[in-house]
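SAMPLE LOG
Freezer: B-3
Tube label: C17
Construct: single chain, 159 aa
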Amino acid sequence: MPSKQHEFQSQLAARWAKKQGFPIVATNLGAVGSREIVDLIAFRSTCSLMIESKISRSDFKADSKKPERTFGGVGTYRFYITPVDMVSAEEIPEGWGLLYVDGKKIIEVVKPLGNLWPNYNYEDARGWAKFKHEVDHDAERAMLFSIARRLVLNQPILN
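STRUCTURE (predicted):
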């Protein structure tokens, strides 16, 4: 069971994702056919966003060993959210973003410029391409189905 601090960070991440224009947001979500249980997954018409909440360095380091971090996985765009200065920008994997939690405020440490959030195939000159990841479409579809099923059953999608 995630700690209160972990859940608090995930809820801040959900609020941040909505402000970034992602109308469909779920926390602590897994789905049949996907090994991953993500702290946050969000969708908009052009892409998906995955945010991993880390509250300890050991958890952050263990995350890099997941097979989804090198191939597939969910999230066209991927971020870590941590307490301030727990992880440095130099430590995060290439193509990942980094958000810090400072009280109730989120600090964007590493993020593409603007609020474009283009799809995977979009070519641009604004630096978004280096943040895009090829996703496991079956896993993302399963997560979207899980969100839709929860909505139909009136279950919360944000824990």
